[in-house]
Amino acid sequence: MMKKSQVVLKKDGSGRTSATSSSVMRSVRYGECQKNHAANIGGYAVDGCREFMASGEEGTNGALLCAACGCHRSFHRREVEIEVVCEYSPPNSSRR
After folding, report:
1. Which residue ranges does the record annotate as region Disordered (predicted)?
2. What is the spatial distance between Cα 40 and Cα 43, in angstroms, rounded to a whole number?
3. Could you tell me the CA-to-CA distances from 33 to 14, 45, 66, 72, 89 in Å, in that order?
């Protein structure tokens, strides 16, 4: 999972500073397998694997192979979920 954080300082006309903080959470999930197993005979057939499950630990070659169907992770549909969280501190709030 990747997390980015950004802080923006803004000054109003009176010289006061307020802070806006936002963080972006990005998670990637791999869905159903889309490998065409009948491509060599001119057809179309998928194996029905519904979700990628790594067959090894993170950092090993097995982490890229699906335990259910044996295909490489790149054959599975990639789903990216992005969540943005913003926090705002008004200029007259007390921060110490």
Report:
1. 1-23
2. 8
3. 58, 11, 9, 9, 45
Q: For residue 50, report the phi and psi dihedrals to the nearest 5 degrees.
A: -90, -25
**According to the 3-state scheme, what is the secondary structure of 22-71?**
EEEEEEEEEEEECCCCCHHHCCCCCCCCCCCCECCCCCCHHHHEECCCCC
The model's pLDDT over 3-62, given as tens digits with 9 standing for 90+, comes to 444 445 455 555 555 556 778 888 999 999 999 999 999 999 999 999 999 999 999 999
The pTM for the full model equals: 0.60
Tokens representing residue 63 in the block:
């982490």
More confident position, 87 or 18: 87
User: Looking up tokens 């307020």, which residue turns up?
Assistant: 18
